[in-house]
Amino acid sequence: GTGKERTHSPTEDEDDELPKLSTSMASQGMLRDMWNAMLAIKASYPDQISSVEWYTFQDGFCSDPAPKLIFLEQHKKNAGILASTRRWVYKHTKLKKLRSILVARIIINQKAIYIFEIERKITKTKEDDEKSGEESFRGLVFNLKEDDDFSKQTHKILSEIRYEEGIFHNLVGN
């Protein structure tokens, strides 16, 4: 953990305003690498892996090879949260460009495995202002009971991860 405490819990009203927009994925970076790896695994193990799909609220699950992402929602102005937490939802704070999440499902031996991966900011060195890499995060991999509502769970996760600055581990047990 980061030692930061949650200073605000999402309310029902905020849950109704969760991300509805989606975007296409960039041609490079960790999200593209993850998506390509999932497709490669499916190609290598076609008898075990029957499906690799991305998800958005508008499209549902889709196996189109050009995945879409879900934008995180910005925090309410008077939410009473730390400035760093408020800024974290942006991939580019000055341009107010929101981060997005790759939400994917892999069907392995007739069982669904869900993967959430966060879009990372490009990190730069102070000396030459050249790209030097991306932020480091751990994604989330999980399964659900068949009666669980995936869309509802996804809304909850995408809302709560904003308060944890991308640290999925802090959501365990919620």
Please sum up the structure shown.
The chain has 174 residues and is of the alpha+beta class.
Question: How would you characterize the overall build of this protein?
Answer:
This protein has 174 residues and is of the alpha+beta class. The chain is built from four helices and eleven strands, in the order H-E-H-E-E-E-H-E-E-E-E-E-E-E-H. The strands form three sheets. Strands 1, 2, 3, 4, 7, 8 and 11 form a seven-stranded antiparallel β-sheet that branches. The chain has a two-stranded antiparallel ribbon with strand order 5-6. A two-stranded antiparallel sheet has the order 9-10. The protein is globular, with a radius of gyration of 17 Å. It starts with 11 loop residues before the first helix and ends in an 11-residue tail after the last helix. Residues 1-19 have low confidence and may be disordered.
Strand-helix topology:
Elements: H1 12-16, E1 22-24, H2 30-44, E2 49-56, E3 60-62, E4 68-71, H3 83-88, E5 90-92, E6 97-98, E7 100-108, E8 111-118, E9 122-124, E10 131-134, E11 140-142, H4 150-163
Antiparallel strand pairs: 1-4, 2-3, 2-7, 4-7, 5-6, 7-8, 8-11, 9-10
Cα gyration radius (Å):
17 Å
Strand content: 25-35%
Poorly predicted spans: 1-19
According to DSSP, the number of beta strands is 11
| Average residue pLDDT | 78
Largest sheet: 7 strands, antiparallel
Q: What is the succession of H and E elements?
A: HEHEEEHEEEEEEEH
Structural class, by secondary structure, is alpha+beta
Question: What is the number of helices?
Answer: 4
- Tell the overall outline: globular
Distance between the termini: 15 Å
Helix content: 10-25%
